[in-house]
Amino acid sequence: MAASLSVATQSILGNAVSGVTNRSCGVSQFFPVKYVPRLGRNAGVQVRCMAEEKQKAKVSTKFSDVFAFSGPAPERINGRLAMIGFVAAMALEVAKGQDVSTQISDGGLTWFIGTSVVLSLASLVPLFKGVTVESVSEGLMTSDAELWNGRFAMLGLIALAFTEYVKGGALV
Q1: What residue ranges of the chain have pLDDT lower than 50?
Q2: Which element (helix H / strand E) includes 166?
């Protein structure tokens, strides 16, 4: 097999490339080819690197830029709060049989405000230091996955509250 491959490669290189030498080269131990094209010093061969270098974009840490409508804070913080709120609302509804409005009136508002303050501060500290969420997201837990999960959690909370309102009580 190796001999036929060597003969085929030699015939292709010997016929198709002009200026082929019959000298052995250092790569012959890996490839059984003895004919290696010899290019002169000014053969006109150019090598261009096509790899794009990732350049860090300057991230603004101004308060107005972080909290802008299309800024990094609003949707991300609301999504994180919605994910925690949806899981907590469903867990309490299954455990105690209370709907969302009852949960809020029975001391849930205090927990909501406390969680909102802690989670918002924890989300804002890296943003004001100039760290982007995209720079630290890898693998399965990406920043896009977090945004989509937050969006679905927001929709889930609205759907849960609306369904309980229409039904007149707890979902479960």
Answers
A1: 5, 7, 15-25
A2: helix 143-167
Q: How far apart, in Å, are the Cα atoms of 18 and each of 13, 36, 37, 39, 80? A: 9, 11, 8, 10, 66
Cα dist from 83 to 75, 78, 109, whole Å: 12, 9, 16
Whole-structure pTM value: 0.61
- Enumerate the H helices of 17-142 as residue ranges: 63-66, 73-96, 100-103, 109-128
Maximum Cα interatomic distance, the chain, rounded to a whole number of Å? 91
Residue type, 47: V
Chain segment 38-82, per-residue pLDDT in tens: 666 666 666 666 666 555 556 778 888 888 888 888 899 999 999
